[in-house]
Automatic annotation (TrEMBL):
The protein, known as: Beta-phosphoglucomutase
A Pfam family that the UniProt record links to this protein: Hydrolase
Originating organism: Vagococcus elongatus
Lineage: Bacteria, Bacillati, Bacillota, Bacilli, Lactobacillales
One GO cellular component term: cytoplasm
Catalytic activity: beta-D-glucose 1-phosphate = beta-D-glucose 6-phosphate
Amino acid sequence: MIKGFLFDLDGVITDSAEYHYRAWKKLAEKIDIKIDREFNEQLKGVDRMNSLERILKYGNKENDFTEQEKAALAVEKNDDYLTLIQLITPEDILPGIMELMNKIKEHDLKMGLTSASKNAPFILEKLGISEMFDIVVDPATLSKSKPDPEIFLKGAQLLGLEPSQCIGVEDAEAGIESIRKAGMFSVGVGDEVSMRDADYRVETTAQLDFDKIMAAAGK
Ligand code: G6P
Ligand code: MG
């Protein structure tokens, strides 16, 4: 029986995935690497340093920077990202999300946040929805990035639930893999290709419907 939901943040609750993309694109251009939206699918859900490594590899520059230089590049990207997310308001909650979260609460189910982003608590504050979450997994406590299941397993544990009692909601390929490996029912938001492994898929958050998801998960 389903007793809780675990949500990704960027690209699911709000469109901050777009800001991550813009900040990485700017940083990549500075070091003569061109990235596009197709490549960006591989960055979604992946933590900061691993995202940088993937970009460097994509541009055949994985051996061009010292660890210290890489750390500085990651800081530069994050500074840019922080500037972009300052202006987030409750109006930036994606369509359908508030309705889904309200239904989860009405049914007395638990709710947790399983984002790899160290900026997630700040964004939840900006959106005005911090209090809706029973738990927020701190990515600093994790040793492995999505697609490893660690983050979703930790989320279930913090909620006091078995993985099989949880539904995970994601927009990233790595995220869906993480949910599935954790042994949870996965809800994917996005196109057929990137969400091909999701147990249940919607094209956009506006189509997220509590009753349909619960029925698909077999309750
Ligand atoms: C999420 C996003 C990724 C981002 C990661 C780390 O998983 O989908 O694009 O790289 O969080 O975010 P941070 O804000 O800590 O750099
Ligand atoms: Mg995401």
